[in-house]
Structures are given as structure tokens and as C-alpha cells.
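Fold it.
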Amino acid sequence: MSEEARKIARILLTEPKWLILSHVKPDGDTLGCGSALTCAGEKLGKDVRWGGADPLPQLYSFLPRAGQYRASGCQPDDGRCVITVDVSTRDRGVPGMAPRIAVDHHRDNEGFASEINWVVPEAAAVGELIYEILLAMNCPLDKEIATALYVSLTTDCGGFSFSNTTYNTIRVAAELVKAGAVPFEIDEKLHYNDSPAKINLWGRCLSRAKKIGSRCALSWLTRDDFRETGADESDTEGLVNMLTHMSGTNMTVLVSEVKDCLRCSVRARGSASAQELAARHGGGGHQYAAGCKLYMPLKDGLALLEEELKSV
């Protein structure tokens, strides 16, 4: 067990009030970790709050304590110990929030927490680290905690098929199943519960997918696509991974025209770096999964990305 896990455990065991923060546009890793920590805190008799800048997507409404998640406005005005999970930079958390502890696995983490920044890029999901913290706190694992952490792991490593999956990922997953997580039930809720609006939105994206150069793929969604199908932005989660199914692709990009910007999701395989592409435009992430925003018309953004992808 790492010394960082022990230090974090000591702090959390001492503090009576916690505030757990997930990142913007929350995914399964940040939400699974937040759910698990919320459950654990309650088991330990703590006063726990959990939230983030953006709403919790309907896809993850089955997570334990999902109903306690609050978007924005969750200020620690009563002296709470603030801990961020899977948040790489200060602006991906909640504006104005100063965490005491940050637990993350992004290589480009800014180290913005005031006391402990535990960043392990080799971890496939932050859930691996939260699992270690819970062990250090001697918090018994039950089905709720195990389910939440299993969601963290399986969503961030593509059902254990992505190259970031390690021996430790599989080992922790096995312990979670032993503690009560049921892979079949979780997979049903994650992958067989889509709305017609989401299916129609994905159809539009996939129908536009095209090969760029010899190794890349690109597709996009417009504001009209969201409006006409009745889908929302959270319905795009996982969609960029479908583009990686195109034969011979090492990098794929999905561009979504939302609000005042173009939100770009990037995935990479092999030696390609999604993080490198996203960083050129002020974004970040992992080598194999990253994102950024472009502030320009859709036509211009697609043209810019096409040129960049031709050199990958």
C-alpha cells in the first residue's frame, strides 16, 4: 500500500465533513469514484457531499448515492475537506474550489491541491487508487462500493480491452466482484439502456465518419443533430470509441457543436498520442484518451483537425 494512500486515509478519517468533486462533463471514472467515496464516508459516519460543475448524466443514475450528487453551487462553506477525483486541472473542477486532496491519473495533472496530489499515470482508472485508500481506511467493501468502483474501472479501460488495462486493474476488479459487484448487471445498465434519441444521434455521427490520411478517423455532430433527435450532450459518451472500430485507425476524433464551442473527444491507439493533439488546443487527458475545445465555426474546426490528422 502506498504512503500517499495512507496519508489520505489519515486525513479523511480525521475530518468529519467531506466534499467530493467530480470533473466537468463527468464520466464513469470520476462518478464511480465519487459514488464509492460517498458510500464509504457514510459507512464511516462522515457528513459527505458530492458534486461537480455539470449535471450527472442519466446513464449513471444507477450508481449508489447518485441522487445526492449536486451540480455546481456545492461550496464548502462549513469547513469541509475537499477532495477531487479524476480532475486533472483546476478549471476542470468547480470554479473557485480549492481542494485539499487530489487523486488522479492524468499525466498532465497540474498538482493544484493544497496538501496532497496523488497522481498515478499508470493506473487505468482512478478507481484503482480509491480502492487503495478505502483499504487504508479499513472501510469494509460492500456491494454498493464495489459496484461504484467497478464502474470506474470498466468505463475507463473499455471493459478491460484498452491497452491501459494492467494486472492491477484486473486484480482490483476481481476483488470488487468478490465484494459484490456483478459485472453482468453493470454491463446491462451501461450498454443496454439507451434511449431512441441517443441511438438516432449516434446514427448521424457514424453515418458521417470518414478516414483522414492512412491512420485517422473523424466525425461530427451539429447543434441541429441534438435538437432534432432530442438527445443531449451527455448522450455522446462512448461514441468516439465507436469510431476506433474503423479498420486501420490509430487516432479518432469526434467533434460536437455545443453551446459556444466545439467539444472535441480524441482517442488513440499504439504510439499515437491523444493528449498531444488535445494539448495543442489547450486541452488535456491521457495518451489514449483526451479532449479539448475549439472556439470557431464547425466548418473551420473540421478543416483544422483534418489538416492536423493528416500528419499523424
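The chain is about 40% helix and 20% strand.
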